[in-house]
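User: Modeling request: complex.
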Amino acid sequence: MKRRNVLIGLGAGLVAGCSKVGESQPMRKLFGLAEDLHRKAQRTLSGRQALAREFSPADISPTFRGNGTTNPVDAAYAAHAAARFATWKLAVGGLVEHPMELSLEQVRALPQRTQITRHDCVEGWSAIGQWTGPQLKTILDMAGLKPETRYIVFHCADKFGDTPYYESIDLVDAFHPQTIVAHRLNGEPLPIKNGAPLRMRIERQLGYKHAKYLNGIEAVASLDTVAGGKGGFWEDRVGYQWYAGI
Amino acid sequence: MKRHRLSTRLWHWINLLALVILFMSGLNISNAHPWLYWGQWGFQPNHAWLAVHRWPDWLLIPGYYNLAAARDWHLLFAWVFAVGLLLYMLIALANGHFRRDIATRRREWRWQEIRADIAAHLRLDFHHGKGKYNFLQKLAYGLVLFILLPLMIFTGMAISPGIDAGLPWLVDVFGGRQSARSIHFVVAWSLFAFLVIHVALVLLSGPFGQLRDMIAGGRVDETA
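Assistant: Request completed. Predicted assembly structure:
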């Protein structure tokens, strides 16, 4: 009986300790290792170029849930929305040969891809929608990435307090055929709750990677110097996993 | 000869630790969106087949709602669980543990035998099997080892958008991503039910000896 009590004591101690242990440096390092291992295992198992499933129009959800920011409070954004985003600019910069500013018209004039995909939120829910826009690859090729580029950072117009939302991906996902800068959802211009006028689609990762209200694309060599250094708004603020394929 | 091999004992306790952490961090993740759906999609209560209870803090890892930290624990111990199970299965296949101790014999499936086995359990007589384990025990361990535990891994993979791209058939097997998520949840609670019954039967059948043997190995009872 004593031994059982010891075991139960050990178990209870372990569980109570998890909250504290989870914040320790060695444990954070282990969590990071597990995340890297998931990324490598998934890319090995699935292949780097594997396409996310595309559905038929009959599969589209009746509505598409908006989550996170669904209406940016920023005055400049409100002015853009009132003007139907006529003067919205997408800046492409950082480690590129030809920095550019694209208008929505220019974005729409690029070769387009339309895909019906399932959006999976980190919270657990899913919705299916049809997205249209140019492939990120097209834009990156126009701008010409410098060889030291390792990551692509997405800058957004929505803010939490004073902190703007942002996200980042590596070049495997940046040049993936389904990674598009979407400006249409289900055949209509992107609604405000879903990220008007432009949002990213990164179909093999969870929803928080799909930056909405997109106004900047930046090529960088390291994420350390971008905002909080962890590669995304939620990564910086609450410690979400940078690789969100799981 | 030991009653439980070292590989079995090691795996048993490592697996218990992993499952406890996975279960409690899983309940934390469940709190992020406590509705379950069938099919590929679903995102609001009126799509749901089940509105899940919001689990209290004392059941969660960490001990408060935190989706990011819960996912850290869940995704780390998913490796411990999956790799542990795989190694244990390979070893148990190689050393004959499955064949000798877990596989049922044809004559055990006779109705008379099964009835006698159930009756013995109801009398709290747990030492009536010919081999190491009696029929119901083999059935329970077989169900957990070969169906419930692998289901946790495969439904977990089917929920992952990065896996879906490469193995879409895995999502189809479960009938869609939200179905896989529902099954993940139901099987997790089935394993919890197994834990309750398992612990209850250990308590009823001589907890000191059972625990001692699962830790130190014990000896094969020659009269069994």
